[in-house]
């Protein structure tokens, strides 16, 4: 059965798939444009970069595609509102935000007629986001890469949030690696779509250094661990020498802060510099955020092929309104 489209506010994506907005400079227009061109929602990671750079990348994306281009901006950023307004001025279609909860963002969305999508990990925040005017809610679970708001798996936290979020799309995120799992979340759990990030790092269009992608390809299950972050949330990442040193208690206190990017930062290391190091392929010093199931992915593919596989697999088993108590089986 054909997958439904995904309508968020005044925008409709033909394929109910959002590409995760990975910062810093992992999700750029180079990745977001082909995602949008394939019918999904392409997302530029807007955290930790200068507003002018973000605006330039948004304008570049909007000139290159008629598809939906969003930006993901962490509420934890000190210049959160500057980045939001700058993105709107540059012509972005949608704002996605998490790592904290902003009430004022919904007023901005209403003023500028920009859909606001909130990332949550609890029924309380999901219901509040809907009440305040969110155009959609993304449920992000512990399987996701990067900063985490819960230690609970997706299939545990999604149903109670689905129970309270009734009038807007609800998106499942965290650990989804193929179209069969996409159909499962939509069929059995009532998701209106999915968000995936790590799979798109392993795309030809993602413009991180090849060493970043090779680190993903080499990763085994035990190589993907939880670590600490100056943001104040746990993060899921590859166990590199830097992450291993953190786990062993090696002091990483930054001598000075060049970026002043976070509202609250414990300064036990500079996350901006560590994420930039990973983007450049520095296996010793980089912080390589990674989803829990990255080890299952063993190929670098064009974005178009990733979409083809997800859609083909999902539509081969998708049956709308299957019901939560009816098992979904997929080919091995």
Automatic annotation (TrEMBL):
What organism is recorded for this protein?
Answer: Desulfofustis limnaeus
Going by the entry's taxonomy, the superkingdom of the source organism is recorded as Bacteria
Q: Which Pfam family, an example, fits this chain? A: NMO
* Record GO terms (molecular function): dioxygenase activity
**Which InterPro entries does the record cross-reference, listed alphabetically?**
Aldolase_TIM, NMO
**Under which name does UniProt file this protein?**
2-nitropropane dioxygenase
Ordered alphabetically, the record's keywords are: Dioxygenase, Flavoprotein, FMN, Oxidoreductase
- Has the keyword Zinc been applied to this entry? no
């Amino acid at each position: 059965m054909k997958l439904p489209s995904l309508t968020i506010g005044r925008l409709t994506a033909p394929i109910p798939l959002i590409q995760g907005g990975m910062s810093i400079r992992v999700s750029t227009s180079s990745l977001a444009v082909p995602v949008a061109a394939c019918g999904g929602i392409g997302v530029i990671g807007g955290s930790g970069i200068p507003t002018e750079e973000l605006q330039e990348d948004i304008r570049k994306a909007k000139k290159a595609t008629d598809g939906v281009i969003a930006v993901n901006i962490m509420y934890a950023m000190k210049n959160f509102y500057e980045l939001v307004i700058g993105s709107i001025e540059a012509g972005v279609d949608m704002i996605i935000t998490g790592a904290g909860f902003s009430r004022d963002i919904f007023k901005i969305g209403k003023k500028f007629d920009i859909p606001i999508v909130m990332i949550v990990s609890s029924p309380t925040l999901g219901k509040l986001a809907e009440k305040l005017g969110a155009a959609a809610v993304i449920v992000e679970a512990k399987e996701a890469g990067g900063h985490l708001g819960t230690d609970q798996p997706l299939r545990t936290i999604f149903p109670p949030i689905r129970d309270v979020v009734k009038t807007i799309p609800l998106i499942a995120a965290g650990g989804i690696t193929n179209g069969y799992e996409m159909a499962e979340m939509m069929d059995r759990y009532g998701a209106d779509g999915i968000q995936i990030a790590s799979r798109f790092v392993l795309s030809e269009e993602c413009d991180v250094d090849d060493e970043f992608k090779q680190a993903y390809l080499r990763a085994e299950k035990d190589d993907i661990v939880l670590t600490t972050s100056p943001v104040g949330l746990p993060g899921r990442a590859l166990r590199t020498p830097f992450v291993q040193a953190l786990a062993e208690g090696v002091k990483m206190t930054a001598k000075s802060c060049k970026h002043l990017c976070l509202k609250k930062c414990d300064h036990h290391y500079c996350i901006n510099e560590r994420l930039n190091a990973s983007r450049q392929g520095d296996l010793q010093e980089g912080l390589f955020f990674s989803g829990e199931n990255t080890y299952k992915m063993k190929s670098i593919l064009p974005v178009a092929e990733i979409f083809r596989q997800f859609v083909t697999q999902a539509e081969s088993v998708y049956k709308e309104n299957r019901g939560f108590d009816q098992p979904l089986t997929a080919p091995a």
